[in-house]
Design a protein that fits this description.
Layout (H helix, E strand, L loop, with lengths): L24 H15 L2 H8 L9 H15 L9
């Protein structure tokens, strides 16, 4: 396998960021996309938060709970919850 060609990308000048400048349409679209992506997780998170950990009694219940929480907190390292 050949080594990939390296492409040097110049750094963005510090004056390119202006915190007081009005947001562009692209930034607004990205914010909407982020909100939509986050909204997809609300139901999943709410269902796990509805579980009272003090009412878990068996090792299976604790294991199932831990799997659900871990899948939310670390989605790239966990199998999807059942």
């Amino acid at each position: 396998m050949a080594t990939p060609m390296r492409i040097n990308v110049p750094k963005t000048p510090k004056e390119s960021f202006n915190p007081g400048r009005p947001a562009s349409h692209l930034l607004r679209s990205q914010a909407v996309h982020l909100q939509e992506a986050l909204a997809k997780h609300i139901g999943e998170i709410a269902s796990v938060l509805a579980i009272n950990p003090y009412k878990l009694r068996t090792e299976k219940e604790f294991g199932d709970y831990a799997k659900k929480v871990t899948a939310i907190l670390h989605p790239h390292n966990s199998p999807p919850p059942k």
